[in-house]
């Protein structure tokens, strides 16, 4: 796990910036393993339910990244929907789909039709049908039908509208974590497997683009800080372990 923590740090910062303060963040995770795993379980619990409340704010760049994934999937769904048929039926996987495709379609169906996101999904379908989806917007920019400034304004409007309709930090985190194999099922304990731990979580984060690594790792560190503060208040934390301030990865 030490190797994992150090490797993750190296992805965010150059060798000249890799100092003791940065290493301290991850050494704390190693030394506070009990609290780290508890923080991770609590954090993921919020992610799986896509709780609207979050310790972190959803940045527009991550919201637009999620929109790109969602719109691409919905375009495929709409293309597969016969004229006059309900597009919702096309969200379901086919029986003869391969395991990977079946799993992805099942996840996206559950994700997009959840009570938190169904209004958002319907709005995205409407936008795509009216040639106002994210792909169409990028195509307009490429074709010269709108300036970069005009397209950026429209993109920001779509992002803000999506956030107001349920696309929150935890929903985006759930979508990004699926890409690296972290799901409710894979992270939960079974008779033959313990729940996901900090080491595995950090290793999976390494499979993400750098900005998403920072998004999820910094969010986890906030949960770790929260867990340690609560442990100190309740007398469960060894105060002989000194900690100075908070750290984040940029």
Task: Present the secondary structure layout.
Elements: H1 2-12, H2 20-31, H3 33-48, H4 60-79, H5 99-112, H6 118-129, H7 134-143, H8 148-164, H9 169-178, H10 184-187, H11 198-205, H12 210-233
Helix pairs in contact: 1-2, 2-3, 3-12, 4-6, 4-8, 7-8
Give a description of the structure:
- With 250 residues, the chain is mostly helical.
- The protein has two domains: 2-53 and 188-233, no CATH class; 60-167, no CATH class.
- 63% of the residues lie in helices and 0% in strands.
- The protein has helices at 2-12, 20-31, 33-48, 60-79, 99-112, 118-129, 134-143, 148-164, 169-178, 184-187, 198-205, 210-233.
- Mean pLDDT is 84; it is low at 1-23 and 241-245.
Helix-strand pattern, N to C?
Answer: HHHHHHHHHHHH
Shape: globular
Helix content: 55-70%
In DSSP terms, counting alpha (H) and pi (I) runs of 4 or more, how many helices? 12
Termini separation comes to 21 Å
SS strand fraction: under 5%
Low-confidence stretches: 1-23, 241-245
The figure for the number of domains is 2
Radius of gyration: 20 Å
Determine the structural class based on helices, strands and strand pairing.
Answer: mainly alpha
Mean pLDDT: 84
The total count of strands amounts to 0
For the biggest sheet, the summary is: none
